[in-house]
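pasting for the record
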Amino acid sequence: MRRTWQRWAQWAGIGALILAIGCAGALLSSPINKAMELERRGNYQEALALYQSVIAKDPTAAEARQAQLRMAKLYQVNLNQPERAVEIYRQIVSSAPRSEEALTARYELALYHFRNEEYPEAARLFEEIVNLAPTTDRGADAQVMLAKTYEKMGKLEEAAETYAAFSNLHADRAEAAALALETRARLLEQMGRKAEAIEARQRIVRDFGAEITEKPEVAQLVETAKEELQAAGAEVPAPRTYETMSRGEQIQVRRQQLRERDRPESAKQAAQQRAASNIFGVSADDLVNQYQIVVDEQGTMYDAMFILAQSMQQMGDYRAAGALYQRAIELAEADEDRKGPWENLGAAYKGLFDVYQKLGLRQLAKESLERALQRNPKVLDQVIDSGLYDYANGDYEQAIETWSSILGLNEKKDSELWYNIGLAYKKLGNTAKEVEAFERSLAADPDNLDAAQSLAEALYYRAGKRQRSYIFQDIADEKAGAEGHWELGMLAFKYGYYRNAEAEFRIGARLAERDEATAPLAARMKAFELVARVKRDRSQVEAIEPELQALAQAHPEDGLVQYAYALFLVEKGSPDEAIALLKAVMERRPNDPEPARALVNLYLSRGQLDQAVAVLDAYAEKNPRDQAMLLWRDQLRLQLNAESVQNP
């Protein structure tokens, strides 16, 4: 395992920043050259003064930002003042967020947080870089480090998906892409997903097996994949070569080779410029020419591009598919002669969204659909209808994927979408996912009586939780009491709909106070109402603390009130106090997974994987039948063991 990490570190070039900036410095103006020479001689203060003079001359110039990068590195490496370096990096990002220097600054900030085990912030910055410059060397390095950060956080599924995204986005980097797939396969095995691990290794052999003679560094990865496939009794596919292609594919490849041979140099340069003009680094217009697409009287060029994009997506060429979807949308929206909306617009935006997701560009995926809705609000309904079409035709997984892609874009639609997703999971026989979807539907809209009814039925008939089902049946029948509003509030709180949580807790607390049997619920709901308000608006921390603290002191034996206060302490920025309190809550409520889950997540956010596993071990002793928590424990334990092998 140590060798795998070393290969990643070597490929990603984490330590190459100083050399890169140094080489670039040779091209800069004389003051920076002189300052760099002063650095080499150890005259750090004089070098800093010279860099400052460059910045003072024109703080907005690229040269000033380059001087800032040199200053930051000097503080970080030579003067052992990392805090000063961090401050400078943040200034660069703030002043020119999309500049080349800001990318470098973000990367250095992310590495700083990674080394200090501040993994959530590191992940956020690495992901920003990937979305800002996905096809660049910097974006590639950041995507690898994002995956490693997820591993450190114990988020194995996110890590595995990020490695897959890297292999899709950077398939032209054979060794790095193959290594990403092998690492993904290892993580999938740790999670017990052996079939997917086999698929990842089959792709290594199929996609990179033909390159081992030209690129010896790939040979070891291909051979390892073959050995693992043979040990698993799985098929070892033939490498994808010209000879193994279909006749049609061979003709296409040969045609492209001849076309490239005969193209004048000016045409090649123009094609490169067109490819560089979009985030995918691929020219959609050149693809159309390459495949000799002809438009008949019944269609348009954007229709043709849309069809070709779907074909490219099915073949796994996501960058080409993304460029085609993007160009098709541009042409369709610029077509002033078309009568009525383009019928494929929603599907094209959905295809573009899916491509972004496959490439690990989640921020861009969300932004693309948000822009679509700003231009044409009907796009959302088109995507919903597309999912309904799949559902009606029995393609429930595709329907779920379609509806999931637009969650969060219009909060008013979330309840409807989650309800539809719940129905699809019901058809698939996945009761756990069905229950979760109906819960989320109610969290998004507590007045969705259909979701309440469906949740009650799922709990009663399929999940075997009849007592809880009665509460939701009362909600569906519009007979909700204090317990019903408590359940609705906790669902809204759990899934992040804090405004709905506040409202339900407020109503429920008033009802609870009227009945002696439910009176203990009142304090709990008041406590969670206050925490929900802080979750929604962090500026309320100081105003809310006295009231919440008083509640916690007045109810020292109520585990849920104490749990709410612990969550508040996390929001306040006092994690050590929260840890102590959550441990106390676990002792009082040994069968409640929520305090344990909160404590595990808190430890993971601090990079304390061993502590997280210890919490789940303690919980498992008291709750050996909680399969979800046991599976989580086993996944984290595998991750902990893997780290022990890497760092003996």
